[in-house]
User: Fold these one by one.
Assistant:
Number 1:
Amino acid sequence: MIYLCFVIWICINSCFAQQYYDPSDCSSEPRNGSRYECQYSFQNSCTTFLVYRANRHFQTISSISDLFILNSTEVLQQNSVTSSDEILKPGREVLVPTNCFCSDRFFQANVSYKVLSNLTFSEIACGVLEGLLNSPILSGANPSQGKEPEFGSELQVPLRCACPDNFTPSKRVIYLVTYPFIEGDEIGTLSIKPTVFPNTTVLIPLTKVPVVDFSVPDPPPPTPAFLPTISNRKKPKSTKSRNLYMAISIAGAILVLVALVACGIMALKKLKGEKFMSRSSLISCSRARSSPRSANSCLSPDILVEIKYSLFMYSIEDLKKATRDFSEENKIGGEVYKGLINNVEVMIQPTRFEKTWQAIDLHSKINHINIVNLHGVCYGEVDFSCSYLVFEFPSNGCLRHCLSNPLQWHRRTQIAFDIATGLHYLHYCTFLPLAHLSLSSTNIFVTTNWRAKLANIGTSAAVGPVKEMDSKDSVRGWVAPEYLHHGSTSEKVDIFAYGVILLELISAWEDLDGKSFKGSITFLGGASEGGCFEQLRSFMDPSLKDDNPLAEALCLAVLAKACLEDDPLHRPTMDDIMKVLARMV
């Protein structure tokens, strides 16, 4: 939290005496006093600061600078961060320098925002921009958008800001910092006397460049809605009172007994060697420090974050024992190992330390039957440079392995439906939408009852602007052209990969460059000679024999061809795909 050199009452020396605090909620209609007026100001423009909190979607100085269209070097100078790519803790406050100017009646700092996912005005203003403006103001600044912004459109964003007017040189105010309140802020530190509410903003007057406290405090415990008053007058004890006291004493004794039994059970679990670590010790952040949600939105699947997310902390000895010292026989692809811990099969994946925290944060916010669960973590012996993620291991192994053996057709269609269901969850049921970005038949695992689960979710990214790919990123198999050449993190990358998997399910081929598939499905476009069904029959997996309903296979092949369009805008959405598959399963 920003330490103040002056308390809020300094504002009586400026024209903002009645409007330094904006009480209007981010998603509500603006009230009188919302935004900061400039018509009577002696200063029409100034350089000032906004406060933005790092979150799982904008967790580096570089990404936050891109959001506010700033040079990352300029933002680094105001924040004690060594690198623009350093991962910041969720809730970490970042000072964002901005140019504030008077437009019509109000001060504002203009930025633009490109809509690259299906978000409402309220979700952009209150979520992405953390309440630095009201959603009705954002909507009013973009009248051509209609009720909600269109995908791919460029929004004009007038952020709240203000410039000071100084009458008393001894109390000269240089900056008025726009500070958005969230639940858990300690308003006593700000010396604010009135009641304040989350999703509102306050102007903080400063006489010099602000200093940031980089700690992320835990939210304070909730205060009761009322404090009971107790009379000092002694009342004579009655028989009814004694009976009440006895009943309360008995109930208290029962509660103590239950607590002791619970403690005993927990102690027995610890004696078995299961090292338990709650998420609170893994991630020093809280839901209260994350981006505020729209007040009028429905309950999000992210409500799971409110539930304590628990992981096991494994030792390196545990993993060596489980994998026979990481033997080659235990490898199941790449650097991933299969192991047995407490008679439970697991997948063990080495990863960099910073990637470990990203995976933990991501898996703490998703919970789906078609996505593998993260069981725990392990840190290296000498340092934390190499860590390990421990996942559940579906017993039938990866889909690529299953397709190397005969697999019945009805199981293939069920697997196709399960994969689509998992992707639909990532694309539509998380905030912000997620793209898997590394979907392949080796990253899909099959359970004992032949149900599919998506793996390697830790590499997923929020749908956002195009960025250059890291040269160290490995691109496996036939991938979407826009991802291969530009690193575009769109859900359409997953749609392309899903089309490849559909063709693998039909043919059981493993096509690494797409040349075999492209040459074999030309009959779907009418370019080949001969009957369509005969061409399709020759393309299908020979192990299916008579178990090959050609009508369903043709439906999947046509759907796969649509998914493999070079232009991502011509590909179907996962919602469209689900509607097709629901008729087959």
Number 2:
Amino acid sequence: MELFFAIVMLACLHSFVLPDGQGDALFALRSSLNASSDQLADWNQNQVSPCTWSQIACDDKGNVIMVSLSSMGFSGTLTPRIGVLKNVNTFSLQGNGITGKIPKEIGNLPSLTMLDLENNRLSGEIPASLGNLKKLQSLFLSRNNLTGTIPQSLSGLPNLMNLQLGSNGLTGQVPEQLFQVPKYNFTGNRLNCGLNLSHRCESDNGGEVDRRIPFGQLRRFSWRELQLATDNFSEKNVLGQGGFGKVYKGVLNDGIKVAVKRLTDYESPGGDAAFQREVEMISVAVHRNLLRLIGFCTTPTERLLVYPYMQNLSVAYRLRELKTGEAVLNWQTRKRVALGTARGLEYLHEHCNPKIIHRDVKAANVLLDEDFEAVVGDFGLAKLVDVKKTNVTTQVRGTMGHIAPEYLSTGKSSEKTDVFGYGIMLLEIVTGQRAIDFSRLEEEDDVLLLDHVKKLQREKRLDAIVDRNLNKNYEMDEVEMMIQVALLCTQASPEDRPAMSEVVRMLEGEGLAERWEEWQHVEVNRRQEYDRLQRRFDWGEDSIFNQDAIELSGGR
């Protein structure tokens, strides 16, 4: 009997998987923050996995990837044990009363993309170890009691997009390379910005950051706030409507203009907590060509997202819905929009972890800020709705004419479906036309803009492609380049389409000639095979084949 029990115990020891320290580290954090008994009450030290705990998100392997403890009233310190959370990409504790130093062990988190410790009482120096965070995109340390100099190591962060160090007690020289970060703020310190550069400490790249809604800080709105802001969701405030719901113009009680998206398919699996986690994950995607998420609102029956109001509306509006007296998008602006949109999508596909697929890239979903810079909106929304509640024929998200053929036929999307949609959007930018236009039936068979452009391109009639509103104020070689990139992006096979990083390079003048020559060779062979098949059959009125069936079975 003793031997039996020994064997059983040995088997149990072999089958038991020891925790990797994530749960212990998080529980140590809870203790060091002086959390009260009703704060983080579901953080159970006896559980092996912390993935069911509130304010925590994990990937499908059980690794903690997000810790979100903003504005919860903590007054303790940060334990060095958080350095074991190797897979965390978002660590947010802004808006508490945390004291003590920033642990140097945070520099041991290789996956970290956002660190937000803003508006606490942290003291001491900024650890030089933060320079080890090569994936870091956003660093928020403003409004603390930090002293000492800015570590030179921060200059070596290749992906840093937003650096907020304002309102501390920092001294010394600002590393010159940090002025190349797209968004920065050093105000409220005693810093030396270098000879003739003192004004650069008093601004943040021209003021892109709104002081009343700090960049990167997600806010939870009440239903009443948004109801008042939009005049009870009045139809007169509707900015647009799409597959995910209506968008309303709103004005918050502090005068800030916002756009409020009221989601239609709001029943996300897992309810409110799951929705909030997904929203927080999407909010981490910070790029100058992506629409910033200000906050959200949830009720038992509603899901709403709040964005900054874009006063120049969408590219689609500027192409086709202008009111009398409004200026047409000139060619230089269209080129800038094309490149900015490509960079935003490249960031979603290749720099987000996990990557984000937009699923509905089109001119109507690319907004224009006050400087007419492209801002991609509605990215990640497909993650926030329950596609299981819809049937097979309607679960494909997107707009006809923009949807890649493989997505339309199988319902499976990838980053290459976004590339296809982007290619169609390029054609919209060049032509000013819609992706589908039934008015063309009067003159030709090409209802789809893609087919129409291909035909004119084969006939070398590029002048007939360009938007007439441009009044010939464009460079034909640049039009040709953009058409070529669009046709490469809209190839029937997703494997043949370029990645968005390649698209960016081609728009910048690198590698297009080689890809285009290859595409022409394939296209010529495809046309020759099509013509050969056409000659092989008799398509007269007495044909035994059902013409309608043949048309429906062809490529869409």
Number 3:
Amino acid sequence: MVLRNVRAGLCRAGLCRAGLLGTVLRQELPSFSSASSPSVPPQPVPPLEQTLQGYLRALEPLLPPDELEHTRRIVEKFGRAGGLGQSLQRGLKSRARHTDNWIADCWVQRAYLESRQPLPVHSNPAISLPKRDFSDWRGQLVFASKLIAAVLDFKAQINNGLPAEFMRGSPLCMQLFPLLFSSCRIPGPKHDHVAHYGRARRSPTHITVVRNYQFFQLEVYNSDGSRMTESQIHAQLLRIRSQSWKTDKEPMGILTSEHRHTWGQAYHRLLKDKLNKESVRTIEKGLFSLCLDSPVMRISDAKYASRMAAQVLHGGGTFSNSGNRWFDKTLQFIVGEDGSWGLLYEQATAEGPPISTLLDHVLEYCKKPDPKRAPLVPLPMPKKLYFYIDRDIKRDIEHAKQNLDILINDLDVNVFNFQRFGKELLKWHKLSPNSFIQTALQLAYYRVHSEVCPSCDIASQRMFRGGRTEYIRSPTNQALRFILAFDDPNVSREAKLQLFREAVEAYSALTDQTMKGQGIDLHLLGLKHQAIEEGLSIPKIFMDTAYGLATHWRLRTGQVPTNTDSVMCFGPLVPDGYAICYNPQADHVHFSITAFNCCEETHAETLALTLDHALCQLQELLQPTV
């Protein structure tokens, strides 16, 4: 099917940040030796011909025959014997022999650190967790104390050596876990970098607590090195509350919500003052941040889940809790007075699977009573962080407030719980739950927009040393055939069911291929990066219009399977796109859908209703009632 209006979207937004344009810079993250994951193999370099053929197959459902043929000629020339592609492939294989991971640093740089978009909505994922059974500040502080203790307990396990995680019998790379703590993204004029303080000679022993836009340094270890107990932490949080009544304090955290170039300039001005530099460094070095949010406006039960996901994602706006965030911080735990809570994280050093492991640990820990009595020792007063705000910084804050409110008002968030069935039914029918949902998403999108579009699902590459993530591309040819047949009354139910199973199986095959390190997007990025490293012109395959169209991800998706009824939420990658996250449970599935209100073509609620209807029809296809 021909993509409509995509070129206009490309002009508005530029190519997707993972679209492989521009100079590739070195990722500034601490490197780990292969000894940290000795049993995990290195990331393979896929065969060139396999990647190029996979790329062409991915284009087939998206392009008309004439455009596809034009691109096919470019791809064949690139990959022919003695051609540029073969030369770049040899360079990649040489790089792979001499590095732990030939692509991870480049991927993180391109996917995250070079992006100039604001971190809230555009980048940082939020995870909203089931509401706790309190509704005032007293319960808020009690739970926050246990939450802090739980996270510190997880960090202790990391320090002592986490047991290896496995997938399909193979060990997974554990290198990301130590980077979760005492890390922070630092803005730069052209690209950001990540500062990690966890391996300094004197590792940080504090967290940052923020309430009513005021930041506090809270030491969470006693003088003998032992972790503070929950009752000790609770006493300290009471002290912080007593020092953080609402005032006319400026919401300094709002600055971190800006366009990265703008924030980089403000960051430079801010750090010229010694007091500001000390306060900023304290936030950056902290193990993690805790955001104690004030209550938000009560709304209907039907919209509560959407509101809570939005609160964790961006704070609700400058008149709500957005000033309680430091969006550059790797880990921010949010606890509201109404029982809402969640986690917001920055992706350059954190990804879904390690975050899920952390949250599973927190949830299990929170079921247990406080295991320790508080020692009878005096505790130091939490240190309030102060800022000197001159006229220029005041102006920066006002601009950031305006821009963030515009961004928040533009985001449409729809969270819903599909309760007709869950993953157990799909497994009973011998169907992959993720592949089933992906096919349903393609069907729902087609019904709303009368076309299919470039879509990306996220696959972990932790099976390989230093591995990060890779895209699984959809739609497939099989999915398109099924979509076109499903609403055709002349096609029999048996034929539709067969086409549906073929579509699901095709996506499962793509997933397996990608999980084995044989995806196409990392390889294409590596080839382009290799050309730049060798001082060559950008190969024509990456300058082709089809490549721009195929990386304009109008459907950004992600499965976040956890052991609880949580839901992840983030914004679309492009102005005319959607972002869809889902968490399949045994008998239900949680979904979050976001879109931008400024685009007249997209509407989160419309897609949500269409998806709900499509899922019900697919159940009927599998289990006819008559």
Number 4:
Amino acid sequence: MGMPIYILGTHTTLMARCILQGRRALHSVGVKVHPFVKEALNDRLPVVALESTIITHGMPYPQNLSMAKEVEEIVRMNGAVPATIGILNGCIHVGLQNDELECLAKRKNVVKVSRRDFPYVLSKGLSGGTTVAGTMIVAHKAGIPIFVTGGIGGVHRGGEKTLDVSADLTELGRTPVAVISAGIKSILDIGRTLEYLETQGVCVATFGESREFPAFFSHQSGFQAPYKVQNEEDAAKLIARSLALQLGSGVLIAVPCPEEEAVSGQLIEEAIQQALREARERGITGKELTPFLLPQVNELSSGKSLNSNIALIKNNASVGSRIAVALNKIQRTQGRREGTSLSKKAFSAPRPVVIGGINVDFIAKVKASVMVEGGQTNPSTVRQTFGGVGRNLADCLSRLGKAPVFISAMGKDEHSETVLRHCRHMDMSGVSQLDGHNTATYCLVVASSGEVRLGLGDMEIHQQITEQYVSGFKESLCRAPLICIDGNVPVSTIQYICQFAREHRLAVYYEPTDVDKASGPFFSDCWRSLACISPNLRELRAINRTLGHPVPADLPSKLEDVVETAVFLVLPLLRELHCVVVTLGHHGVLVCGRSVGGSVSLHPGLCSKTTASELCATHYPAIPVPVEELVNVSGAGDSLMAGIIAGLLAGEDTNDCVRMGLLSASLSLRSYEPISPAISATSVNVERVQAQRWLGTKTWKLS
């Protein structure tokens, strides 16, 4: 069978074909992919593969289970999605549930599964932990380029006579997956293993300042690696080049064990030699040798090797997930440059861009119908959630399958770790993490009826979403079918986006955020470049006041008066804006703009300000939510706009777009999270909204 010839520059397309073929192969043998992993792969987010022999054969219970859960959590905290790979009852799992992890951790007589073992284990319906080689095979077929482990196998001591060489080495020579490990297990012949890897054509580099190849438990092995990468960005560039060249071989990044946990090489060497003597006396060889040696070495070192083992695996997970995030950024940039795709979903259409804030929200909902002031404690339910208008919009759009490019900033602190963990279903690669800054926090007091009574915020970090930072995403901005920016962003950045949009004929939608920030773009003429804004009535009044237009002193509460006031305040803006979406809370939404085909056009590409079409306004009632089901109003408006935008990007008409927004808002009103986890492309789509029974709309012509 001849070798395929690849043309450099089209590697992303070729990679997509390989991934598709690999997934088909996995599907044909019955593979269960965890929903979070499947969603991340489809949305082209960073995913890290994790092996399972370390659970089944590397550590005793319960340390193996707690270690596995902690490693997955570390991967999430660094912005990637963990995918532990194992076999349960003849089914390959890519991503394991907690109960499945526990099953593998407790189960006896599970098989250690390498390349040669798959056919037998699957055909017999057995369970097993995948080795480095076994995990690499599954990860590659699933389209996961980064794999984190403890240490790889190698040439066994005396292997020049016994030919006992781990399949991990040959797999590294023929499977293009980057393996992040603590080097080669010190119970092996490190020198001969490095020579064998060279023969297999595997690129080997140490991580950090030194080329000293780590000896698993200790930093010193006495051998030098061919190369070194100083940080995750360097490692990602190396891996990206290897994948681009289509060499067909893997990359090994060797990460030294943390200094404070490193064990004396002499202590470990003495324990290894004694354990090897016992193995020879018992006739233990082959794949049974390592599972025998590790607990023996741990016992002989008084438990120090196990502690060091756990520490280095956690460290590898941290380093490996950061490399995965950095590689993901490179692959996204490369994919956009080539105009090719890694997955049909991710690149089937240009991606919208959302620029705005991220908050950690603390929401206190008062239990009593009347709130007592004066320093007294009001019995309440207090919850931590994650908000920020930009984050909410990006969250909802991600759940609706639109995979937005999200540009924001947060601190590098304890809050940022929880944000990344919570937002793992989103592309967070455009979010800057800044030392010395606080992640934005927002404290919200909500009455028992669900209405917001008081808000307190620490939002200084939003000022770091600067023109300079956003300008680094010019390519994404130019390709975006729509740019959405919120009022948390500095006015100078909003002005830059408006100018950029004018020059490149881009559609920008502005979400005012709150009354104090609503007028940001309206202090200059930059607002004339906006296509659409989505204020509530108070924000709309503030905008008109800034522009010098007359405004009412008080705002009405009856629907007829609310609509009349909204129309009065919208008309001056429609001389420049294409569309204004006024959110009216429990009254629904008023969509104002130019009429196309009998309804307001939401997209500026369908008509222009100079078109002879008439202005009109259409009122859409809200979906009724019983008071007992009303939980949180903080994200309803953002869900509404995200649903409208998702419909717009899907090419739906105005009625269906608005109703997708209303359905999204009704789901979020029932959720403790600002954006309901129940929102998805399945629960909110044009088929679903067309099947609903809707209250009637009403349209007015505007003079």
